[in-house]
Amino acid sequence: MTAEETTPETKPFEALPLGDRIANFVVIVVPLIALAAAIVLLWPWGVSWTALALFFGMYIVTGFGVTVGYHRLFTHRSFETGPVLKAILGVLGSMSVQGSIIHWCGYHRQHHQHSDHDGDPHSPHTHGHGHGIGGVLRGLWRAQVGWMLERDRPTFARNYTADLEKDPVVAWIDKRTWLWITLSLLIPTVLGGLITMSWAGALLGFLWGGAIRIAFVHHVTWSVNSVCHIWGSAPFRSHDESRNNALIGLLALGEGWHNNHHAFPTSARHGLRWWQFDPSYLMIRVLEKLGLARRVRVPSSERQAEKRAA
Prior knowledge:
Elements: E1 13-15, H1 18-42, H2 49-75, E2 80-81, H3 83-94, H4 101-113, H5 132-149, E3 152-154, H6 162-166, H7 168-174, H8 177-196, H9 199-226, H10 246-251, H11 258-263, H12 279-289, E4 293-294, H13 301-306
Antiparallel strand pairs: 1-3, 2-4
């Protein structure tokens, strides 16, 4: 099921339990505290190559778990693959600590169904934020993290995820989300300790490859919800405020070509021009060449011409 095939939910908002709001707050704030702790621990010696390698390595693999797995495979079905690679992408996406597959995909499908209108979980243009710089900043805050901390937020509608709940691989991974979160922190911690053969290395692995990396993946991903619905270009008609933003396109492994994506939601390729760098699509192409991905969907030049903005 894609966003175009869903039906609107009947109850637009539901009360988010206090425990869930606290958990969301912890996930947002603790990685930032870890960043501050790492700066203190490393001052004035700088960041070690081991810490940087663990940070970037975990950033790339969990980032692709979100962009190639959660987003382009599970949410939009922009390509197909076998159960083994599906499981790997599902686990890597879960290790980004952005929630389970089913909830992530459900909210994202809901976002497409109601993009920048009532029912969009995280639009910067709803909820009457007002005008001027203050209104823009309030909208950015809500789209970035605020919507996850609200007492009342858009309902998670099961009709968006019926196909995912019936998929045995997805259901198995979804029920073990906390295991993948634990591995997300444990793997860089163990690697840091083994590489340096020290407890200090293990701590730096936990901080840079674990907590700080989670913070960066979070805020880069959430910037697609906020920044890419305010600043950038809109070469295609999309019936919303989605924008292409080159900086987010680079940081988010190709996800920042957001207007392209909203114009063609089921396309595996978001960077539709040669100069629009899209690492996630390049990864899908590599998987296709290796026989691990098939039925990769990309809009034809004719379809793109039809949707060009006047």
